[in-house]
Amino acid sequence: MSVSMNAVTLVLGAFAALTAAAPAALAAAAYPDRPIRVVVPYPPGGGTDILARLVGRNLNESWKQPVIIDNRPGANGLIGMDTAARAVPNGQTLMAVAAGPLDEHNLKYFAPVALFAAPPYLFVVHPGVKAVSVKELIALARSQPGKMNYGSTGGGAASHLATELFKAMAGVDIQHVPYKGIGQASTELLGGQVQMLIGPSQALMPHVKSGKLRALGITSAKRSSVVPDVPTVAESGLPGYEAYGWFGLVAPARTPAAIVSQLNTEIVRILQTSEMKARLAELGAEPASYKPAEFLAFIRRENAKWDKLINDRKIEVERVRLAI
After folding, report:
1. Spatial distance between the Cα atoms of 14 and 17, rounded to a whole number of angstroms
2. 257-271 and 274-282 are packed helices; what angle lies between their axes, rounded to 10 degrees?
3. How far is Cα 256 from Cα 252, in angstroms, rounded to an integer?
4. CA distances from 299 to 26, 112, 115, 146 (A)
5. Half-sphere exposure of 4 toward its Cβ, with a 13 Å CA cutoff?
6. Which residue, among 270, 267, 127, 272, has the nearest Cα to 190 in the 3D structure?
7. 167 to 80, 164, 171, 174, 308: CA distances (angstroms)
8. Residues 157-186: b if buried by 16+ CB within 10 A, e if exposed
9. Kind plus residue range of the DSSP H or E element containing 177
10. Most buried pick, 6, 43, 215, 320, via CB within 10 A?
11. Which domains does the chain have, with CATH numbers?
């Protein structure tokens, strides 16, 4: 019996393809077979660190492998990002990250794995401000251009950019006063040194409940189930306004897609547990369920939105750039 050369070529080609795919398939099948390190490019205690530890503990329980949280703060996240980006892309080193440092330049060094949540911010004012809605605040600011001011957690921070977006869309002139973190910014707002602030709901809502601050809106597109009585900024007077923070997990670029998918599936399951839902609610957020490709698209949409704002309004932002 004779065999044609075409048939031999087809068989050899198929064998070569299977052989090439075997290492990646075997790696994914065995994963995880060693401890997993999650780099956090921020100090312990922040939202990213807390969520990374909760997810890590649940991964440990699921997979019976230690999950080690490695805090590498410094240089606006650059030290931690550099550590994670240089790691072997085998799923053993991951990075928990928040909105900000993964701009288009730095994003190329990572493979998005899972979005934990995208919490909106709370827009609050000092009780002395004569406005009980966003619409009234806009009218008040327009009547006295340049005389009102707002606090932020620092130049280029999410609270700064979210308020600049508000100013741009509302056509108002409000002066920026940057502080070193939400603690200092909210203290100054409580004292009346600034009139308004857009910031994390978990830090500001206790002051709203005590009557020391007034909430004008939540920055999501629809009302949050966490604070259902607070209207959105859009419905309170500025249609189309949206601003979110986000927390998520990424891996070094070139991490096998099968491992990224396996991680994503397990993390999405973890995010739906009652413990994670309760913790996210404290952050004013609900669990996300994006696939890796959807998470990547989300990051790129956010990058494009904020880059346009920064460029249009010539906002000075300190960029951190990986060079590997």
Report:
1. 5
2. 80
3. 10
4. 30, 9, 10, 33
5. 3
6. 127
7. 33, 5, 6, 7, 14
8. bbbbbbbbbbbebbebebeebbbeebeebb
9. strand 175-178
10. 215
11. 33-119+245-313 (3.40.190.150), 121-236 (3.40.190.10)
Q: pLDDT tens per residue, the chain (324 residues)? A: 444 444 444 444 444 444 444 444 444 568 999 999 999 998 888 888 989 999 999 999 999 999 999 999 988 889 999 999 999 999 999 999 988 888 899 999 999 999 999 999 999 999 999 999 999 999 999 999 999 999 998 888 889 999 999 999 999 999 999 998 888 999 999 999 999 999 988 889 999 999 999 999 999 999 988 889 999 999 999 999 999 989 999 999 999 999 999 999 999 999 999 989 998 888 778 899 999 999 999 999 999 999 999 999 999 887 788 988
Residue indicated by tokens 């590997």: 324
**How many whole angstroms separate alpha carbon 122 and alpha carbon 226?**
12
Strand 93-98 and strand 36-40: pairing?
Answer: parallel
Dist. CA 286–CA 297, nearest whole Å? 19
